[in-house]
UniProtKB/TrEMBL annotation:
SUPFAM superfamilies attached to this UniProt entry: Homeodomain-like
The name this protein goes by in its record: AraC family transcriptional regulator
Compositional bias annotation for Low complexity: 332-342
Domain HTH araC/xylS-type: 229-327
Domain of life: Bacteria
GO cellular component: cytosol
Length: 342
């Protein structure tokens, strides 16, 4: 079974802006997708790829704009790809840039997806594929991705460049005319999504090459898309909504409770251990970064009162939350006072 895909939440902001501009309800869209609005403030946070797809579909339904994915990605261009966009702009040729996208995308931006270039005679096919078995929102996600792929090519070939055609999967394509106008080419249906263009263009030189080190081209930690990592990200996400449970996490991953438990056992861990690590990390972050009272942090973590949270934290660390906060504050002051420290 393919790994569950994870992706950065940075596309959430443009989607929310588009919904608001069209007079739709951003809160309703996020609610339908089962996603917390707090994601808008954390663009580099990791979420399930299937949740992103559900959000795009909810936005399309909310404002009645099936061409929304093409509109968003063509407007953003390679800037919307973050550090991957910097890698593209630092490549010598278009072919080298597409090679970098293939390697870096699953590491920094979005796992469980495949990109690559295949040449057939004089034609090149720049493909995009979701490896995870997700049906809802798949075509919309392909259109979103193709817009970014188009932006990559246009960096080398000019803003007005048009591919021979684009291809998406599915039995039919809503708003085909609008999407074709945005892409500047015919959009066909086929077994794999991608862009078709003349193969010799792979040698096109970069007209505005930058230096990736000076532009922060590899910012961001690599994505761990193992099952334990996915479970941890879902638990952290559900904390924003009032409290995770193993049944809720299993549903979000498209698994039964027993299947999730069995696969975690096979990976050498269990749900309780992952849940404890996530809770400790979130609690430590809130204690270190804010001046919120212990009761408020307890409520954020789903505890009924400060006493229950204090007992749990004492079991995790051997210290109460107040003791931990005082110790952390003392260490921080000591580190900042050392010579040579910023």
């Amino acid at each position: 079974m393919p790994a569950h895909g994870l992706t950065r939440a940075r596309t959430m902001g443009p989607i929310a802006d588009a919904v608001a501009a069209a007079g739709g309800s951003v809160r309703r869209v996020f609610g339908r997708a089962g996603m917390p609005l707090t994601l808008l403030d954390t663009p580099d946070r990791l979420i399930l790829l299937r949740d992103q797809l559900a959000l795009v579909e909810a936005a399309i339904r909310e404002i009645g704009d099936a061409a929304l994915p093409a509109r968003l990605s063509t407007r953003a261009g390679i800037v919307g790809l973050g550090p991957i966009g910097v890698q593209v702009q630092s490549a010598e040729t278009l072919g080298a840039a597409l090679g970098r996208v293939e390697i870096v995308t699953p590491v920094l931006l979005q796992t469980a997806t495949l990109t690559g270039v295949r040449c057939h005679g004089t034609e090149a096919f720049y493909s995009y594929e979701v490896a995870e078995r997700i049906e809802i929102g798949r075509q919309a996600n392909e259109i979103l991705a193709l817009g970014y792929l188009l932006g990559t090519a246009r960096h080398f070939l000019g803003a007005g460049w048009r591919p021979k055609r684009a291809v998406v999967t599915g039995a039919w394509l809503p708003a085909r005319g609008e999407i074709e106008a945005l892409f500047g080419c015919e959009v066909a249906l086929g077994p794999r999504a991608g862009l078709v263009f003349p193969a010799p263009l792979l040698g096109a030189l970069n007209p505005r090459r930058i230096h990736p080190a000076r532009e922060g081209g590899m910012e961001g930690a690599p994505i761990d898309d193992g099952l334990a990592g996915c479970v941890a990200h879902v638990i952290a996400l559900d904390l924003d909504e009032g409290g995770p449970s193993i049944d809720r996490v299993a549903r979000r991953l498209g698994l039964s409770r027993r299947t999730l438990q069995r696969r975690l056992e096979e990976a050498g861990t269990c749900y309780a251990d992952i849940h404890r690590r996530v809770m400790l990390r979130r609690a430590s972050e809130r204690l270190a970064e804010t001046t919120l009272g212990i009761g408020r942090i307890a409520a954020e973590l789903g505890y009924g009162d400060a006493a229950h949270f204090t007992r749990a934290f004492l079991g995790w660390t051997g210290a109460t939350p107040s003791q931990w906060r005082r110790h952390h504050s003392s260490r921080s002051r000591l580190a900042s006072s050392k010579p040579g420290q910023a």
